[in-house]
Amino acid sequence: MLANFRQSVSDWIFRVAAPETPPVTLVQRRIFILPTRQGYAFALMLLLLLLASINYNLSLGFLLTFLLGGMAGVGLLHTWRNLAHLRLRPGRCEPVFAGDTAAFAVTIESPSLTRFAIGLARRGEEPVHGDIAATEPATLAIPVQARHRGRVTCGRLEVFTRYPIGLFHAWSYVEFDLSIVVYPRPDPTAGSPPNAGADANEEGIPVPGEEEFNMLRAYRPGDPPRQIAWKALAREQELLTKDFSAMASSELWIDWDDARAPDAESRLSILAHWVLQADGYGQAYGLCLPGARIAADRGEAHRARCLEALALFELPR
Q: Could you read off the pLDDT of 110-137 as tens digits, one per residue?
């Protein structure tokens, strides 16, 4: 609770207008700087040195104290300058399947000097670090575990540095409209998509049927005994079921009602598997969901559109 309270106070004090319009330049008023734990310990040591020098009238003690204090002041300036005037833009965030690792990417540019040990952090995730060469943009990507389908928003990001001596922590906040679409995890036991073509123009693409053997898939309760691969079982393999195929028509319709599963998430996983299979066949296919219909097409953009529809699907009320 105390950590959450501190974070809430920090969010209120260092609030920014969100989302911000890129590019964002870290000007002087956006950069905050405070001593680190080592910095506070260093300040306490300087105080003790100063008191000892005053008490014993040590000329060399005064020299050492002010020399170290001056070095700390120079370090403070260099820490601030390492962050000042950096330009940040949102990078490309590729969609992933549930269970995979996604990444929020930010492109950072330095207008003049090379910057060292620049960090980028998102709340709840480990920070990433990198050097930013002068006039050469660099991309820092924060890995995120995508556990569930849907849209994952990035939220506020902290850009920070402790270079060069680690006595000071300089930071700034940015918040772009960054998000990642997480597709449903395809169900590898779903088999092939059903043949629901709109016409009889055959393209020789295998879909479920009873004409010829297509593939072996994992056994699902309810599969007829005549389709069980008994030879594979005799070889001490797992229980498998034979999938037979027929010839597909020119258009394949992947329908919500054809996915037999106990819950909506399992249905979406089956549909995602069928979309990937239909795309691999090179066949024109469409997607029918409750309240939504995507016209038949083919290609990478169409596959992404169908998978995104599955990722953001919500049952109508």
A: 988 899 999 999 987 889 999 999 888 9
Tell me the pTM.
0.73
Environment class of 57 (CB within 10 Å of its CB; exposed 0-12, middle 13-18, buried 19+): exposed
What confidence tens digit (pLDDT) does each residue in 63-111 have? 999 999 999 999 999 999 999 999 999 998 999 999 999 999 999 999 8
In whole angstroms, how far apart are CA 23 and each of 109, 215, 278? Answer: 10, 51, 40
Please report, for the chain, the start and end positions of each structural domain, with discontinuous segments joined by +.
Answer: 17-183, 206-311
Query: What percent of the residues of the chain are helix, what percent strand, and what percent coil, each to the nearest 5?
Result: 30, 35, 35
Cα–Cα distance list, 163 to 115, 117, 168 (Å): 9, 6, 8
- Locate all alpha helices (DSSP H) within the chain, ordered by sequence: 2-13, 37-56, 59-83, 230-234, 264-281, 300-311
